[in-house]
Design goal:
Helix content: 25-40%
Strand content: 15-25%
Shape: extended
Number of strands: 32
Structural class: alpha+beta
Number of helices: 21
Length: 817
């Protein structure tokens, strides 16, 4: 089923994809194997390709694959079904007609039937569907149709566009691209006797009675120009990837599938098509099939709304007015406001609903309160209310005193003191509130906290703020993945940060990261078969714990931020303004809403202004390349600490010390067994860790698997052991002397050879000069020396012998090596 790739050839060397995964109707394919093993309830899958006009070597947001079912949340039109006419192999449809619609349009349904004229291309059905037939193949990038269509298609194309059709690049504006024809392909319907409750004339994706009165329930697949025209950013050209080259049959490729949720249902012999953006729907949850957790839409989609926790009552109505408001008439009711606070659980994206809009969305138009968010993970509502002057002056409401509600009356429906999302200001907050007998959550003021963080909205999407992230897979023996929740994530993050940055582990050094820099990406079950060298694992694999994938942000303190709101300063101004308002006489023409605009409106306006003006809807910082080296070393230090022998034992000890961990020993905690059993802690392990450099475009991965070996070799204790090991040092000294002797001999020999060569060149030069000009020679004695007082007619003198004895070999200069 699975293999190991050892080499790459052909296009795989240069293209983004590393290989091809077969998805046809064959027993060796992944869906069929999973179905045969009972992992999928149905032998089917869907592919949903997003509308991406261009390609990139860094990859694009591709879409979604769903195994064993259909996720209709992705669809913007009903799923309609074409018949799969093949009995084995490829998914094959029967093409009955080809149409061209003028003035484009993205959907099978025309935008304007008066402006968009549909013309039919003559098709020889037997040739078009001959051979292997027309297959729907995601592994083929482009679409290929029968060659007999080329002429008639070209004529219709020219009539509509006044251009000749070709597969060469052309320059187009965005408007010209959108007005190119949309190609419509009619596919034979799956049902011979279609459901009469589905009206073909108004159902998107069906042919309808106007195009084909005899087969109105056939499928109509739309291929707009934004799908079949491929854009090259480097050349600024659009190229049609719709080819008319096939002798028999054809291929409906990935570009035709784009913008559709395509069902491959071998079990029922059909291929389904639903138009889709292939993005997760706003406000709907996707469940991780492994953990059962709700997947944060921010991890998989671009249009993500802000998500808020349940509001807690911070100030009651009577706290918003003063005794001075009642001096003129102590029996009247005065207008005030209640202040409610919500924790931001997910800040969303710039294209989704803002936190302010999410708060307002819960109210009818005439009841909408004033809202604001402070940028540190908290949002506020001022709700209008009335309070009697008697209650204001006495401080008593006349009602029974509030008491905490019992768990059976409300349970944990209020904020439980867990940290919210990390907001754009790189801060996150938490509040704690108690469900009281009035059915409302009342905030406990002294438990409100804010801390620094570098994940979520202030995370790796800004490479200057977070240039590196360390990923680690931690396996905890006895852990219970199905019980994973927000509290467990917070316990792990706090213990992980405290263990890495503990004085015992890293004495005297600065903090490497904080709990607000840790994000849990996944918690899943750990099985016996996952153990290295595991043997004897039968069909019923044993679950032995849980694996947790964490991401640790390495924050750049030198990153330069755009000017944003000073939240603390604004809060101080808010308090000062509130006090001054209480000291002023009540103005009958000033409502509490106008007061609120003076006090808290500034924060909202400034934050919105900053976020709106910056790219991607959140502040992007700038930095210097020199910032990165010390941070890369920090990432390496984090990895070294994760690889320390007793790291997990220390981390689990810190989990036991966590200030709110009295619930961790309960059966509801995923850590209950491991915290109660030290043996399970010793059997836990950090499986691996690696660092990602968060460059724009995907980043680079550094595997730390060898780093610990280098660090161990150069560890000061190891070096001391080497130095005090006498046999080892004796051997090293002897080896060094041998190498020095070899080097000395080689150096002398090489030096003599070089000097000999230079001398020979000089003698040859002297001989050449003698031929041209004869000088005066000195007499040479039998010893080779010059007679005293005789003149030598050359500048060179006593270092050379004029007549060289053949027995002497090479000419040498005086001196020994």
């Amino acid at each position: 089923m699975f293999g190991c790739q050892t080499s790459e050839t052909g296009l795989f060397v240069t293209q983004l994809a590393d290989g091809i995964m077969g998805m046809s109707a064959h027993d060796a394919t992944l869906p069929k194997q999973m179905y045969n093993k009972g992992k999928l309830e149905h032998n089917l899958f869907t592919l949903c390709f997003r509308r991406e006009l261009s390609v990139s070597k860094q990859g694009v947001s591709a879409g979604v694959m769903t195994l064993g079912g259909i996720d209709t949340r992705l669809d913007s039109s009903p799923m309609v079904y074409a018949k799969n006419v093949a009995s084995t192999g490829w998914y094959t449809v029967f093409v009955k007609n080809i149409f061209v619609r003028s003035n484009g349009g993205q959907s099978a349904r025309a935008d304007d039937e008066l402006e968009q004229v549909v013309m039919k291309i003559p098709v020889d059905i037997s040739s078009m569907n001959g051979g292997k037939g027309v297959i729907v193949d995601s592994g083929t990038t482009d679409t290929y149709l029968h060659k007999d269509l080329a002429k008639s298609f070209g004529e219709v194309w020219y009539e509509v566009t006044k251009r000749s059709y070709s597969n060469t690049g052309i320059k187009l504006s965005r408007d010209e691209l959108l007005r190119l024809p949309t190609v419509l392909i009619q596919l034979r319907a799956y049902d011979e006797f279609p459901d009469p409750s589905i009206p073909p004339e108004s159902t998107t994706g069906l042919v309808g009675p106007k195009l084909d009165p005899s087969s109105p329930h056939d499928v109509l697949l739309a291929i707009p120009a934004t799908h079949y025209m491929e854009y090259s950013p480097s050349k600024d050209l659009y190229t049609s990837r719709l080819y008319f080259t096939e002798s028999r049959g054809g291929v409906i490729g990935a570009n035709a599938m784009q913008g559709h949720d395509v069902l491959f249902d071998w079990e029922n012999g059909r291929v389904g098509f639903a138009e889709s953006s292939c993005e997760f729907k706003e406000g709907e949850n996707m469940i991780d099939p492994i953990t059962g957790k709700v997947i944060d839409a921010g991890e998989v989609g671009e249009n993500r709304n802000c998500v808020l926790g349940r509001p807690s009552l911070t100030y009651e109505c009577r706290e918003s007015v003063t005794v001075d408001d009642c001096l003129d008439d102590p029996n009247k009711n005065v207008a005030g406001f209640e202040k409610w606070t919500s924790v931001v659980l997910s800040s969303g994206t710039s294209s989704g609903m803002s936190c302010e809009d999410a708060l307002m969305n819960n109210w009818a138009e005439e009841e909408k309160p004033e809202v604001s968010c402070d940028g540190s993970g908290l949002c506020f509502e001022l709700r209008p209310c009335e309070v009697s002057c008697a209650e204001v002056m006495t401080g008593e409401s006349g009602k029974a005193p509030l008491t905490p509600a019992s768990p059976t009356e409300g349970g944990d429906i209020c904020e439980d003191g867990l940290w919210g999302a990390c907001d754009h200001t790189c801060e996150q907050s938490k509040i704690a509130s108690t469900l009281m007998s009035d059915g409302l959550c009342h905030e406990v003021d002294e438990l409100r906290q804010t801390r620094d963080c570098h994940i979520d909205a202030c995370g790796r999407l800004d490479p200057c703020r977070v240039p590196f992230v360390v990923h680690a897979i931690i396996a905890l023996r006895g852990g219970k993945a199905p019980l994973w929740n927000r509290r467990a994530e917070e316990v792990l993050a706090d213990a992980l940060a405290k263990t890495v940055d503990s004085e015992e582990a890293d004495p005297g050094n600065e903090v490497l990261f904080g709990a607000g820099d840790v994000k849990v990406l996944l918690a899943t079950s750990w099985y016996k078969s996952d153990l290295v060298g595991a043997e004897g694992v039968g069909e019923e694999d044993e679950e032995i714990g849980m694996k947790i994938v964490v991401e640790i942000s390495i924050f750049n303190a030198n990153a330069k931020f755009p000017e944003i709101v000073d939240v603390e300063q604004e809060e101080e101004e808010e308090e000062e303004n509130m006090l001054s308002m209480e000291e002023e006489d009540a103005d009958s023409n000033t409502t509490f809403l106008e007061k609120f605009e003076k006090v808290e409106g500034k924060v909202e306006e400034k934050v919105k202004k900053v976020v709106k003006e910056l790219p991607h809807g959140h502040p992007l910082s700038t930095c210097e390349e020199s910032d990165f080296y010390p941070l890369a070393k920090t990432a390496l230090d984090v990895h070294a600490e994760l690889g320390r022998e007793y790291f997990l034992s220390d981390m689990i000890s810190n989990m036991k010390k966590y200030e709110i961990l009295e619930v961790a020993y309960s059966e509801k905690s995923p850590f209950s067994d491991i915290l109660a059993n030290n043996e399970l802690a010793r059997e836990s392990q950090v499986i691996t860790s690696w660092t990602i450099k968060t460059d724009v475009g995907g980043g680079k991965v550094h595997d730390h698997s060898w780093d610990s070996n280098f660090r161990k070799f150069f560890d000061k204790d190891n070096i001391l052991n080497y130095v005090t090991n006498i046999p080892l040092m004796t051997m090293a000294l002897a080896l060094s002397l041998i190498l020095c002797a070899i080097g000395l001999c080689c150096g002398c020999s090489c030096g003599r050879r070089k000097r000999s060569g230079r001398n020979q060149e000089r003698v040859a030069l002297i001989a050449e000069k003698k031929k041209g000009k004869k000088g005066k020679y000195a007499k040479i004695s039998s010893t080779g020396s010059f007679d005293e007082g005789e003149e030598l007619g050359l500048e060179s003198s006593s270092e050379y012998k004029d007549n060289i004895d053949s027995s002497e070999g090479d000419v040498e200069m005086m001196g020994e090596c």
